[in-house]
Amino acid sequence: MPTRFHLYRFTKKTPLSDEVFNRIFADIDLRIAKLEDIEKDWQYAINEVTKYGLKRIEEVLRPSWEYLQQKKSQADEIVEEIQEKRDSADAIINASRDEVLEQIQAARTQALNDIQTAKEQAISQLDLNKLYAMAFFFGGD
Predict the structure, then answer these.
(1) Is residue 18's pLDDT more than 70?
(2) Largest alpha-carbon pair distance within the chain?
(3) Contacts with 14 (C-beta within 8 Å, 6 or more apart), sequence order
(4) What does the pLDDT look like over 57-100, one tens digit per residue?
């Protein structure tokens, strides 16, 4: 907007009257009103561009967002399935573990019994051999 300072300038000879002030303020007011109208037009344009831009962003990003949400749901389902299988495997392992521990305990008890029996037989055989040896040395057949 071109400057109009030369129209508003006061000098020592300018009469201070309501006509002078009204003419200056009317011109300033009209110029400001035009700027306000331009600002309204600019604000409308900015609002329209913003609205269009957001719409385009929505159109472009919505499919990707929905795809990501779908993949996340699928991943959540897979994780849930894995957790169920893990829980099932843990239950099977725990059941088998208890059975195996019982078998190990039974085998251990049986082995200890077998060892004890073998020990007693060995001692008994040793005693018998000592008895034969003594009989041989001391005049037995």
Answers:
(1) yes
(2) 169
(3) 20
(4) 999 999 999 999 999 999 999 999 999 999 999 988 888 888 88
Nearest-5° angle of CA 82, CA 84, CA 86? 70
Number of neighbouring beta carbons within 10 Å of residue 28: 13
Does the structure show a pLDDT above 70 at 50?
A: yes
Angstrom distance (rounded) from CA 69 to CA 88 = 29
Would you say 123 and 129 are in contact if contact means Cβ atoms under 8 Å apart? no
In one-letter notation, the amino acid at residue 7 is: L
Burial state string for 71-99 with b = 16 or more CB within 10 A and e = fewer than 16: eeeeeeeeeeeeeeeeeeeeeeeeeeeee
* Euclidean distance between CA atoms 122 and 119, whole angstroms: 5
Q: Name the CA radius of gyration of the chain, rounded.
A: 54
Whether residue 40 has pLDDT greater than 80: no
**Residue 140 is which amino acid?**
G
Distance CA 54, CA 51 (A): 5
